[in-house]
C-alpha cells in the first residue's frame, strides 16, 4: 500500500493533527539522562582539542620575558568568591602579584610566590579563564585583602586544606595564552614542562542554571546560544540536536572560522557584528540576516537572553559558580593555540554516538508495529506539549550522526568530510557548479492570519531546566564553530525568510574571522562562466526589442521588469525561433531580470538557473525565453511574465488574511499544491532537486497558472550521487534531514511543499517567528510540525500534509504518490483563484 493510500485509511478520530512525525526507526532509549549530583569529573563533557604547536615555542619566548603586566578579572575561592574583580596583574621572576591599579608601587592585594604554584589550567568559569592552584606547603603569599586570601574558601581540588585556587580571566584569548605561556615558563614547579603538543583538553559543556548560560562551549557557540531562544530546557531535552543546529547554522551562514581556536575566533575580539556591519554591502541591506544580528548584538548585552531570565544569586550567598555539567560531548579539533594544560592526555578516541546502531533496532522493522507515520500523533504531540519536548529524543534515543532514519543514506563519515567537502563539490546539473549556502536579504514575514497569534508568539517564555543533559559529539577542523551572529531581542519577527546567497568567503571576511576555513573554491572560473553564458545568451543589446513597462520585483541578484516585446530578436537558431514563437511573440508581455554580473557573488548560480530553466519546459515551470549579454557585465534574462506575482504576495494579500480564516481555502490550496507538485514531479523525473521550494518561488499568472521559479540551487542526482548533503534552502522550509546534515534526495522538496501548504493555511511557515537557530532546533527535534488549528481542517488536507511532512524519508510521499492523493480531489478550478489574483489590479 502506498503511503498516501495508507494515510487515507486513517479515521478522523485518530487524526486531528499532522504531527508529530513517527519516531526514527531503530533508535533505543537515550542514555543521556543527566544527574546533577554527579561529580564534575564524571559529568565532564569532553571537548578534545587537539592542538599542535611548535614544541616550547611559547615558553621559549616567554622565558626571555622579564616582567609581564596587564589588567585581568580575578576571583578567588574565598568569602567574596562570587565577585570578579578587576586587577592589575604583574608577573616577575619571583611573584605573581595582583594590584588594585596599575600603580604597582602600592601594596599588592595578592602576591603569590611562583614557587608555590603547583598547577595552572584553563577553566570554564568565565571566558578566557584559567585557574592557578597553589600549594599550602609552599604557600607564603602575602595578602592585604580578605578577598585575596581566600581564607574561608576551599580549594577546588578537593584537597582544600593544602591547596588554594584563584581564577584569572584576561580580556582576550590571546592575552590568556600569553599569560599562560609566561607563567609556565617562570614557575619552577611547572618548569620543564614546555608548551604541550598534541594534548587533549577536556572541558565541560553544559547549561548552568545559576547563570542561565551555556558553559564550556567555544565562546562563539555560547554567544549564539545566548541570543537564540534555545533554552536550557531545550539543551536538556536534546543537547545533541542543539549542537547539530549550531554546526548547521554556522556552516549555513558560511561563517565557519575556527571555533576551536578561540584566540583566532574570539568573539570578543571579532564580534559577529563585524559581519553585521559589513552586511551592508549586501544588496538588500535592510533585511539581511547580518543586519538583524548586528542589531541584536548591540541591543542585547553580554549577559544575553538566557542570563537575563535568571535572577542573580544574592551576593552573600555562597553559590557554587561551577555549573552543573553534562557528561560531555567529545569535540575533537585542532587548535594552534594553547587551551590548556592538565597536561598531556593523549588524544583519545571517543565514540561519536551515545549509542551504536545495534541498540536493539532492526532496520527491517523500523517502526515496529507503527508503520503508519501518524498512528501515534496525537498522543505524542500531546506529550510534547505537556513536557516541552521531553519525549522527543530522550524516548527515541536519538543519536547524532546516525543514519537509521534514512535507509538510503550512507553512514556519514564525519561532518567535515560531508558538509564542507560536499559544499564545495555540489554541482549544478550541467555545470559542475559549486553551490554555496544562500544568503539572501531577508524579507519581513507575511502578516499572519491573526495578529493575536503573532503577539502571542512574541511572548517567549523560558522554562529553563535546572540541569544539563549530555551529548556526545565530535568535531573536526571544518566543523568549528565560529563567531557568528546575534539577534535582536526586539526583532523576533524578522526571521530569515530567504535563503542566503552570500558566498562563504565573503561572509567570512565580514565575520571578522581572521583564519578562515578553506574557502569554497568556485567550480568555474570567470572565463568559464562567461563561456557558458555565451552559449545560452545572445551577445546583443536587447533594448530595441522591448518596451520596458515597470519594475515587477526585486531579487537578490537583480531587478525584474515587466516589458512588452516589440519584436523577436535576430540571431535565434531555428529551434529557438520555433520555441520562441510558440511561447512569446511581438506584443507579448515578458519578465526581464537584469543582473550586473560583476555584482554577483556566485555567477555560476545564475548560469545554473538559466540552464535548468532552459532545459525544463513544463506548464508548471516558469519558461525561459532568451537571455542577452548586453555587455560583458550586463545580463538580461527574459522569461514569461507571471502577472499574479508570487504565492507569498498572494497569501499576504488574500482577502481573508488577518481574519481567523486561512488566507486560502482548502480547494485553492489543493489546486496550487497540485500544480506545484506537477512541476516538481517533472523536475524529479529528471533527477533534479529544486531545494528551495517555498511560496516565494511559486508564481501565478492571471489565468491561475502556477509555476515554479528560482532554479539557482537545483541539484542533479546522478547514479553516482543519488544523495546530496549540501546545506541549501531556506531554514523554515528545510526538511529535518537537511538541517541534520544527513544525505538527502528529492524528497526534501516534498517536505518543503508541505511547509508551503502550511503557509497557505496559516499565513506563514512554522517557527517563522522564532530565531533562525531556534527554528532549526525545532525542525530537527519536533519532527512534523503541528498545525495551529487542526480542528478546522479537513481530514484530507491533514492526511496530505502528514505524508509530505513525514520525518522518515522512507515514509514521506514522492511527488508521484502525492499526485494520486485524494486531497487533490477537492481542488477548485482556476476561476476560483480569481479573488486571490485581484490584489494586483
Ligand atoms: N517571471 C516573472 N514574472 C513576474 N514577476 C516575476 C517573475 N520573476 C520574478 N518576478 C518578481 O520579481 C521578484 C524577484 O524575483 P527573483 O527571481 O529575482 O527573486 P529572488 O529569488 O528573490 O532573487 P534571486 O533569484 O535573484 O535570488 C519576485 O518576487 C517576483 O515578484
TrEMBL record:
Compositional bias annotation for Low complexity: 140-151, 273-294, 378-397
Alphabetic keyword roster: ATP-binding, Kinase, Nucleotide-binding, Serine/threonine-protein kinase, Transferase
Coiled coil (UniProt feature): none
Any one biological process term the GO annotation gives: sterol import
Domain annotation PH: ranges: 65-188
Domain Protein kinase: start-end pairs: 546-824
InterPro entries the UniProt entry points to: CRIB_dom, CRIB_dom_sf, Kinase-like_dom_sf, PAK3-like, PAK_BD, PH-like_dom_sf, PH_domain, Prot_kinase_dom
UniProt superkingdom: Eukaryota
EC number: 2.7.11.1
Residues of the CRIB domain: 193-206
Stretches the record annotates as Disordered: 13-35, 140-165, 260-525
Comp. bias intervals (Polar residues): 260-271, 357-368, 403-433, 453-471
GO molecular function: ATP binding; protein serine/threonine kinase activity
GO cellular component, as recorded: nucleus
The UniProt record lists the keyword Nucleus: no
Catalytic activity: L-seryl-[protein] + ATP = O-phospho-L-seryl-[protein] + ADP + H(+); L-threonyl-[protein] + ATP = O-phospho-L-threonyl-[protein] + ADP + H(+)
Pfam families linked to this entry: PBD, PH, Pkinase
Family note: Belongs to the protein kinase superfamily. STE Ser/Thr protein kinase family. STE20 subfamily.
Annotated protein name in UniProt: non-specific serine/threonine protein kinase
Originating organism: Torulaspora globosa
